[in-house]
Specification:
Blueprint (H helix, E strand, L loop, with lengths): L9 E4 L5 H12 L3 E6 L2 H14 L5 E5 L5 H14 L5 E4 L9 E3 L2 E2 H22 L4 E6 L3 H4 L16 H22 L3 E6 L14 H13 L5 H8 L10 E2 L5 E2 L7 H16 L3
Parallel strand pairs: 1-2, 1-4, 2-3, 4-7, 7-8, 8-9
Antiparallel strand pairs: 5-6, 9-10
Helix pairs in contact: 1-2, 3-4, 4-6, 6-9
């Protein structure tokens, strides 16, 4: 897939200390972008910076510790970026987790917060920086296209705290697509897309039950440590395709179900704002 050099551009990668986020950070640093990766833990962030520098010698990369479920923490991050970078060319939402239990707040499942609400909160806060950059873009990690095509029924006006873990994760997947659609249709000068990263080495299943740990171990034997589709989408100045759409790991447009509509994007955005207000 085609890429372009990214010298002079600033990229922010959430979930950048491992898995897809780390793979994306390595690729964009190799292309010359100033890369800022986010982590919940300072040691993990510093280890990730060293991994990126090893993959891209001379790279301009650093890390920030942030709690992406805290509006105050995210606001401090954005203030820091405004002071040090001024604008933001690319935001990559790569935070995700499997198997989280319990609620972050009453009525907000922790898994939904990690796999979707953090993306909404960070993206919303970063919009002023993105608006200041020419041809800015927001890229969000999605799931396999086969799963996306089956998104026929999910809540749009709120999250059901009593729903099964699978249904909560399904809703998170759908709302990420709706977030991308909303951004593409309401923000002039900001492109947005969801991408399937392909099989990337990750510790996503490392803390799960033994059967899932074994699946993760086997998958990692065949997984890559780079994410070419993210390099392609982040670096190209060409249009990303259908407004707020999705591409697979080869850069091909994925047909989305009718439920990923403008009307549902507006409703899920409003519901997301209400949920974020509960995190204050």
């Amino acid at each position: 897939m085609e890429t372009q050099r990214m010298e002079g551009k600033t990229v922010l990668v959430s979930g950048g200390s491992s898995g897809v986020g780390l793979a994306v950070a390595k690729g964009l640093a190799r292309l010359g972008a100033r890369t800022v990766l986010l982590s919940r833990d300072g040691d993990r962030g510093r280890n990730a910076v060293r991994a990126v520098q090893q993959a891209a010698p001379g790279a301009d990369v650093d890390s920030r510790v942030v709690d992406l479920t805290s509006p105050a923490s995210v606001a401090r991050l954005v203030d820091d970026l405004r002071d040090t970078a001024g604008t933001l060319d690319v935001l990559v939402n790569a935070t995700g987790a499997v198997g989280e239990r319990g609620d972050l707040r009453p009525g907000i499942p922790r898994s939904f917060a990690t796999n979707y609400l953090t993306h909404h909160l960070l993206t919303r806060a970063a919009l002023p920086l993105l608006r200041g950059a020419p041809a800015a873009r927001v890229l969000t990690v999605g799931v396999a296209p086969a799963l996306v095509r089956r998104l026929e029924e999910f809540a749009v006006d709120g999250v059901d705290a009593n729903a099964s873990g699978v249904r909560v994760l399904t809703q998170a997947v759908a709302w990420k697509l709706l977030l991308s659609r909303h951004l593409a249709e309401t923000e002039t000068g900001i492109s947005a897309a969801v991408f399937h990263p392909g099989l990337i080495k990750s510790d996503l299943l490392g803390r799960q039950a033994l059967p899932l740990r074994l699946v993760g171990s086997v998958a990692n034997r065949f997984a890559g440590s780079t994410c070419p589709v993210a390099d392609h989408l982040a670096s190209r100045t060409a249009d990303l395709g259908p407004a707020g759409g999705m591409v697979d790991d080869r850069g091909r447009t994925v047909a989305l179900p009718p439920t990923i509509s403008t009307a549902n994007a507006e409703r899920s955005w409003a519901a997301s704002e209400a949920l974020v207000d509960q995190l204050v």
